[in-house]
Amino acid sequence: MNRCALLLIALLAASPLAAADTPPDTIPPFEMVRTLQTLQAQIADGNAAAVAAQRELLGVMESKFLAADPTVWQDGRNARAAVTYTLSGGNPRLLRGLLTLSPPIAVDANLAAGALAYIENREDEARKRLLPLDARSLPTSLGGQVALVQAGLVAREDLNRAVGLLDDARLLMPGTLVEEAALRREVFLVAQTGNLDRFEFLSRQYLRRFSTSIYAEDFRQRFSTAIARLGIADGDDRFPRLETILKSSDPENQRALFLQLAQAAVVHGKLSTARSAAADAVKLAPLGGSDAMRAGLYDAAASIIAGNDIGEVQKRLSSLNRRQLSRRDADLLDAAVAVATAVGEAPAVPTPLEPVSTVAADAKRGDDWVTGTMRAAEADLSTVDALLEKANSP
């Protein structure tokens, strides 16, 4: 039996109702959703087996929920669980069917229909039904998810409201995958506002609490790109503040962050930031390893500027082992070599032009110098002069 199956069985067995000698097949939907959220919390902690276990549990929940007696959904806990299941990646077929039942399921109709519209990418209806809801008035296990969805619906046109909703999501469901997702998204929304203090605070929170999350790699990539693209680390006073954020995590995470930041900074032309980040990365990288090679690439690429010893930069670039680089870094190496070659080429010395009088005095060279177009133009001018002279004659 694989790890994810063992994990799933252990979590189901730990259910309060299972502990009370309730057969697993009769565990109610709301208890299964609690198990799902427990798995998701482990995903936020970096448990790779929990990802596969979640997929298996969603499949089990789908079959059992679809087969459940309609009266099950008259219990508000189970009806809310159906909404949570749908927003957590469950098959929308369940909620679509539940919305046709009579009597209706025991949950706010706008909440259920809005959740289904959101999952089915019917954004206008989702906005109409979900945005008027107060997520803080819902049970916390559902309210956090609703606030997270609401933030996504308003982020494009109302950044401040989206940030507030993400704050609600984090506060309603601390320690869960909802908090991890809300914090990860809020960092990048705040970055767009230019509030560096808030950006630093939230980034430090994420790196301290969720650096092992399954989604931490996505965070690091987007974080580095945002810093480079928005110029958050530009200026002598800003990079040290950024270093403080990055150094709040473990050394391995720091190295990955500095490398990704250096790469993104080179691509976006933030050369000072690239060199500083590469210098920090190389201090944390094993000597002679691929990470040290990457740091050397980014530093060399960012050093191709006027005033530097281009010959030395070219030597550094040529010493890099392409086999230790990813495809993206190999492409960056090719581009850096091409730029360094162009910068290092000495401009051709122009041949001094001889005075026209000198060339014209030489009959042979003068004939070669005068083109056919010039001769035709001279003939035309002579014709015009003759015509003008004739016209002015009495």
Keywords for this entry:
394 residues; mainly alpha; Serine Threonine Protein Phosphatase 5, Tetratricopeptide repeat; 0% strand; elongated
Structure description:
Helix 5 runs parallel beside helix 9 and helix 9 packs antiparallel against helix 10. It is elongated, with a radius of gyration of 34 Å. The chain has a domain of 131 residues: Serine Threonine Protein Phosphatase 5, Tetratricopeptide repeat. It is an all-alpha fold and 394 residues long.
- Tell me the radius of gyration: 34 Å
CATH architectural category of the domain at 215-345: Alpha Horseshoe
Separation of termini? Answer: 118 Å
Number of strands: 0
**Main sheet characteristics:** none
CATH class of the domain at 215-345 reads Mainly Alpha
Quaternary organization: single chain
How many helix segments?
22
Q: What class do helices, strands and sheet pairing give?
A: mainly alpha
Query: Secondary-structure element sequence?
Result: HHHHHHHHHHHHHHHHHHHHHH
Helix-residue proportion: over 70%
Instruction: Categorize the overall geometry.
Output: elongated
Estimate the strand proportion: under 5%
Question: Remind me, CATH topology of the domain at 215-345?
Answer: Serine Threonine Protein Phosphatase 5, Tetratricopeptide repeat
Mean pLDDT: 84
Uncertain spans: 17-22
